[in-house]
Amino acid sequence: MRTLLRSLAAPALALAAVIPAANAQQGDVAVSAAWTRAVGTTAPTAAGYMTLRNRGAAPDRLVGAETPAARSVEIHEQRMEEGVMRMRPLPGGVPLPPGETVTLGPGGTHLMLVGPTRALARGEWVPLTLRFERAGEVRVELSVEAAGARQPAHAGH
To answer: How many domains does the chain have?
Structure first.
């Protein structure tokens, strides 16, 4: 039985290493449901969405991100001001209080992938490195959903 388990463990670990993950954890910060929408080759931007959870006792902050799929990544906030929807960069990042969950989603705070370097097609995965003040770097992959998606296909499952 031990031999059988050992023979199955190595291929399973190898497979796990190549399966893209929309979830990740580094230190006290957990990232889940990371996704983006499909965009064409001429799109000036794309957006990244996800859920961030601080499982620790100290505050943290998302301060930046990068991906090879875009020239740069900015943290943006979208909100209604005097009846007009406005989008602005958040140069101070996204606060992540201890024990709290913060959702980056459509119509609110999100990551702006500026100058996609290629088309993003539904079903693909986009590598993304998030930078936190305390937790450091967290690597995750954005699942690419349909162009008009309001949530990832796996939401609620």
So the answer is: 1
